[in-house]
Amino acid sequence: MSMSRSRVRAIFRKELREYRRNSGIVWAMTIFPLIFLIQPLFLVLALPASESASLSHRHLLLYMLGIPSLVPATLAAYAVVGERQQATLEPVLTTPIRREEFLLGKALASFVPSVAISYVVYAVFLACVGLFARPGVASALIRGPEILSQVLLTPLLAAWSNWVGIAISARSSDVRVAQQLGILVSLPAAAMTSLIAFDVIHATLGLALGLVAALLLADGLGWRILAATFDRERLVTGTRS
Amino acid sequence: MRSHSWATPNGKRGAPALSVHSLTKCFGDRVAFQDVTFEIGYGEVFGFLGPNGAGKTTTVRTLGTLVAPTSGSATVAGIPLTSENGVAIRRRIAIMPESPGLYLRLSVAENLECFAGLYEAPDPNDRFDRALRAVNLTDRAHDVCGALSKGLRQRVALARALLSDPEVLFLDEPTSGLDPVAAREVHDLIDGLRRRGVTIFLTTHRLEEAERLCDRVAILNTTLRTIGRPDELRDQLFGKTLTVRTLVPLPERGRVFAGLPAVVGWHQDSTGAYVLAVSESAVAAPAVTRALVASGADVLSISELHHSLEDVYLKLIGGNKEADRR
Predict the structure, then answer these.
(1) Distances (CA, A) of B67 to A120, B72, B200
(2) Residue B294 forms part of a structural domain
(3) Claim: this prediction has a pTM higher than 0.90
């Protein structure tokens, strides 16, 4: 089966246009990154230089992995149920689009902005720490392995959050319920990254590699399960085929 | 059902645009429609009538590959209706659902651009220019759909359905909720599409709309009740009738009407008019006129009673409300 780039692109572009004009989605895309940026920033900027030694056991930079854990689910929750509520799903499904093309277009539309926001917020955080943190604190916090972890884990977490959001959206009848459920189901991933950030779970190379492997597996399975269970008939008629 | 040889879009004789045989769709124990059989030729406007819940929309969704049939078979635009052929069928057809289903935050052009991409239109700009011209919306291309009236939204939805140059166009209640002027515009558009040779499958509640636009109609109430040209259906269900009004009652009406050619029987209705059942109006009417004049009757009018498609519909559906109860 070959996928049509034109159809995936049509869904992707349409979604981005809709996001831009939907204040609810713009808020959702703004509020989580702000929460995850401001709270650790205040914490770090208030730290005295004498605390820098204790920071070697903490991985505050990983705290911001909460953004790719939560934002995609919030956006993706709108993907299918939003179309159903607007009665736009049926016209789309009557075109030659395949379910995989539809899902990929939707997934990219929530994945790309979420990952971009995550990286931008992370870059802003690093810049603020580098510029405004007390001497010693910045050098204790900004470490190569953590930046690498952030860069690698961000898209993997975002993809997982995405599949969860779309899966919930395809089975919900209300956008708000889908968003709340999406956040709820994404919370364990966000909690896990927070526990690592505050050294409740001790970060090791093995743990990082294990997380990457687990997320790769979960992302692959998530795509396959979602594509297999996407039921055109149920979505259009509200009844199982 | 008699098989036909239909004209294809390029003028050749060949398979019908739509061929449906014993098609049935059930949702669990509930029967949406059952044992539906019909054929539609290329370029035909086919009306699909029936009460709410009769299975019209589900039939359209089934033929549009959105819903899988429970049993039976069909070919749509020459392609067998199977799940593997879904994409191929949807390339050749377009469906305009009852609700326009537009992205209300996007402009008319952005809506059409999205669908041109979904149909992989090779020349999208030309396609939506043509589609917008067809529905007289060229000057509204940059308006946000949410700001358009219901009638204009319906026209945008029709433009969207025309983007793919479909061989078969399914229109599900295209004038539902429209005022008479907007409905008339949609009728004119359908007329224009018919002239271009597009096969149109029109589901509607508006019987006068079906009578005006459709070459043939089918009446569905879970099962197919009848199918044919509107005038054929009228003739099948109602005999030809002449109504005679006179200034005063005829003194010897039995003698006036008896033995006239093509007059099968007669009775006087509650208004005092004489209702004559005739086998052929063109033969009976002159003979009745001559007989009335010869008898010295003061004739007010002699008219042929026309039954509408509504009469046909009510006769077939009126006494059977099973769809409404579901």
Answers:
(1) 44, 13, 20
(2) yes
(3) no
